[in-house]
Design brief:
- α1 packs across α2, α2 packs parallel to α3 and α7 crosses α8.
- It contains eight helices and eight strands, in the order βαβαβαβαβαβαβαβα.
- The two termini are about 20 Å apart.
- The chain has one domain: TIM Barrel, CATH 3.20.20.20.
- Helices cover about 35% and strands about 10% of the residues.
- The chain is an alpha/beta fold.
- It has a six-stranded parallel beta sheet, with helices on one face. It has a two-stranded parallel ribbon with strand order 7-8.
């Protein structure tokens, strides 16, 4: 899953692709490098990020989705917690909803997923909103906490008419878990324990702060941890650098 942030403030590539021309060029680059899915986001959810109005988020993501659909059928994931953004993105040609709030951010999101019978990614986060805080949250058992949360949200999704076969789980990483890096590494080491939920697992370690060092020097670390995630049960790898990730994964 190639990351395409059409935002001015995303932590690793904010402002680089926030025009149709630049976003299309990056999308074509990701596809050429071997992306299987494009994940398009119009609102940052990192620490100190700002709320974006509905109109602004729509203006950022809908034109690029429509433009992409003129030349490619690659699956498109819309990274949003707003039901109206998801609705318009799906109508424009997106196929997947990637909700970092796991249906907590907008009470109408489940209805949109049910209506379109699309795939839906539910991600664990220590925070109920898309604003990632910088709390050094501590866990007695981080995997148990994540599993209990995901079970609850999966049950909620199914009760609201979403087919279990359309659901994908994401345990979260970095600030979504805790600003203490050890928990992100523990999740990767124990990822197989989430396979008992019998759903595809998505992992997004790419360029996260827990990797340490300058952002522009995190791609090799990201690729190595993506390989560990794959070996431990992840079936979707969300990454900014497709080439580095595939280079690492090809040896497995």
């Amino acid at each position: 899953m190639g990351v395409l942030n059409v935002t001015p403030d995303s932590f690793s590539d904010g402002g680089k692709f926030n025009s149709i021309k630049k976003a299309l060029a990056q999308a074509k680059k990701l596809i050429k490098e071997g992306a299987d899915i494009l994940d398009i986001g119009g609102e940052s959810s990192g620490p100190n990020s700002q709320n974006v109005s509905l109109a602004e988020e729509l203006n950022r993501v809908i034109p690029i989705i429509k433009a992409l659909r003129k030349f490619t059928e690659i699956p498109i994931s819309i990274d949003t917690y707003k039901s109206q953004v998801a609705e318009e993105a799906l109508k424009a040609g997106a196929n997947i909803i990637n909700d970092v709030t796991a249906l907590r951010g907008d009470k109408n999101m489940a209805a949109v997923a049910k209506k379109h019978q699309c795939h839906l990614i539910l991600m664990y986060s220590k925070d109920p909103t898309a604003r990632t805080t910088t709390q050094e949250t501590k866990y007695k058992d981080v995997i148990a906490t994540i599993k209990d949360f995901l079970k609850k949200q999966l049950n909620y999704a199914v009760k609201n008419g979403i087919k279990k076969s359309n659901l994908i789980i994401d345990p979260g990483m970095g600030g979504f878990i805790s600003m203490l890096p050890k928990y992100s590494y523990e999740i990767l080491a124990r990822l197989k324990e989430l396979k008992s939920l019998k759903l595809p697992i998505l992992i997004g370690v790419s360029r996260k702060s827990f990797l340490g060092g300058p952002i522009d020097q995190r791609d090799q670390k990201s690729a190595a941890l993506a390989a560990i995630a794959y070996l431990n049960g992840a079936s979707i790898i969300r990454t900014h650098n497709i080439t580095a990730t595939k280079e690492c994964l090809k040896w497995i």
